[in-house]
Amino acid sequence: MANKKKVVVTGFEPFGEHTVNSSWVAVQELVRLGLGEMVDLHVYELPVDYQAVQDILLSLWKEHQPQLAVHVGVSGIATSVTLEQCGHNKGYTRLDNRSFCPASHCCMENGPDYIKSVIDMDTVCKRVNGSNIGITVSVSKDAGRYLCDYTYYTSLHQGQGYSAFVHVPALGGPYSSEELGRGLQAVVKEMLNLLEVDYNEWGEKDNKHCHHKQ
């Protein structure tokens, strides 16, 4: 029997006007819906805290060595489920929940300006939009230069590109919690399908992940 695929999915705690963070609501709905028997799913609620996120992501990649990490965040301007193609290193001037921002305003000093996910988000988008699940998906190349973007870049670096970021609208704008969960389930399943095409044997990817950047 084939080995289970290990997937880590995160959402965020409340911040600012988002007293209920739809990202964590969507992740909880994903847990309820599941990703099938062949996926070993681990979920975590991340703090809106630059320093804590760095430490947590390092430990999550080290502990679980997942085939894929998917991070979910809320966007106050999004009206669709938005797939982010890349994370950015610089431009972090907005204060977190602890009134802190990195002194260097970047994720990783001397790191590349951006890191792309190995997943082709355009393909995921087309497949989910073509499946008629009632959820509209779009693609973005700017995750916003706040904790979402910071988390994504950090995770892409730790996981050598095997990470994804999904922005969801606030609850009711226009989707319910159940719809957000269904949309998240659909995009994560398509991401895993793409990775399976790239790697006929998951063991090949597991071997790559034995040496995460520290």
TrEMBL record:
Coiled coil: none annotated. Its EC number is 3.4.19.3. The keyword Transcription regulation does not apply. One of its GO terms (molecular function) is pyroglutamyl-peptidase activity. One of its GO terms (cellular component) is cytosol. It catalyses: Release of an N-terminal pyroglutamyl group from a polypeptide, the second amino acid generally not being Pro. InterPro entries: Peptidase_C15, Peptidase_C15-like, Peptidase_C15-like_sf, PGPEP1_Cys_AS. The keyword NAD does not apply. GO terms for biological process: proteolysis. Gene3D superfamilies: Peptidase C15, pyroglutamyl peptidase I-like. Keywords: Cytoplasm, Hydrolase, Protease, Thiol protease. The active site is at C148. It is an enzyme of class 3 (hydrolase). Belongs to the peptidase C15 family. This is Pyroglutamyl-peptidase I. It comes from Poecilia latipinna (sailfin molly). The lineage of its organism: Eukaryota, Metazoa, Chordata, Craniata, Vertebrata.
